[in-house]
């Protein structure tokens, strides 16, 4: 069985967010806010990336006051290499400008539509 090498625009957004701070553990809510993905899209992506060993996942240490423990995610070294290659392969659109306050990210533009 061959592994799929192309990533969806949503997966690229998650990978880009994780690659921005590759050594930091990130929780899903933080990634959801940054990528603007709903939990029903984000968490299956994170599970698939963890299954492919591109992302490490663990539970937050300790018992935080007033909320449940969070699941944390970060890229593996192989995941960072694959992310760097995947993001480099995404063509930059020349016809659309980024929204104010946002970087011109091709995966964001691809899902915004005309």
Structural summary, described in words:
- The chain is mainly alpha-helical and 114 residues long.
- The radius of gyration is 15 Å and the shape is globular.
- The relative contact order is 0.19.
- The protein has a three-stranded antiparallel sheet with strand order 1-3-2.
- It has helices at residues 9-20, 28-35, 39-51, 77-88, 106-112; strands at 26-27, 55-59, 71-75.
- Helix 1 (9-20) packs across helix 4 and helix 1 (9-20) packs antiparallel against helix 5 (106-112).
- The protein is built from five helices and three strands.
- How many helices? The count is 5
Count of DSSP strands: 3
The 3D shape can be described as: globular
What share of the residues does DSSP label as strand, in percent?
A: 5-15%
Q: Which structural class should the secondary elements be placed in?
A: mainly alpha
Secondary structure topology:
Elements: H1 9-20, E1 26-27, H2 28-35, H3 39-51, E2 55-59, E3 71-75, H4 77-88, H5 106-112
Antiparallel strand pairs: 1-3, 2-3
Which features would summarize this protein structure in a list?
disordered C terminus, globular, 114 residues, mainly alpha
């Amino acid at each position: 069985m061959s592994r799929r090498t192309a990533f969806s625009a949503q997966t690229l957004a998650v990978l880009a967010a994780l690659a921005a701070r590759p050594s930091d553990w990130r929780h899903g809510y933080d990634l959801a806010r940054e990528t603007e993905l709903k939990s029903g899209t984000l968490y299956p992506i994170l599970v698939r990336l963890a299954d492919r060993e591109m992302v490490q996942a663990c539970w937050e240490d300790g018992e935080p006051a007033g909320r449940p423990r969070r699941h944390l995610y970060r890229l593996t070294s192989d995941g960072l290499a694959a992310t760097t290659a995947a993001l480099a392969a995404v063509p930059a659109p020349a016809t659309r400008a980024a929204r104010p306050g946002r970087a011109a990210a091709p995966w964001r533009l691809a899902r915004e539509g005309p």
